[in-house]
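Next up, sample data.

:::
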Amino acid sequence: MKIAIIYSTSSASTKKACKLLSSKIKATVQLIPIEKAKTACLLKYNFIILAGSALNGKVQSAMKRYISRNYKTLQEKPIALVLNCEEGIDTRDRLNKTFTEQLVDSSFINSNFGYELNPDEGNFLEKRKTNNLINSYKKDGKSLPMLNIDEIDKFADYINNMIEKRVD
């Protein structure tokens, strides 16, 4: 089975989560940043995973455009959906706003992997904003956000069970 993980990210957190996920899936997995995704590539894969980081409740416009351009093909393929955003939100609502309700309903599995802050990432202003956010968490005595490894493991287990059953 060939699986494509097509991801968009405003930080390295989503890419890191996708790499972790791909290492746990027992199949041929191709990681494809949204900038390199092409319409024809979907036809090569038995299963498609779309992953996006949701900053302020929205994924990057490139992912939205990609979904819009490839909507019919995505509806015909087995798909899974991943968000990287804050936990403790209404994940279903965020998924619907990000990927469309129809795509969410047709997905085999969907999840929120959480996110993490990296103060060494981005340009000067992004680093400053991240450092301010980290300081705010520390000041309030809150734990810094982290990727939810348990959720990534559950997601990979689900995909691996599908592979064993040869669902495609």
Q: What stands out?
A: The longest strand covers residues 2-8. The CA atoms of residues 96 and 104 lie 6 Å apart. The domain at 2-117+146-165 is CATH 3.40.50.360 (Rossmann fold).
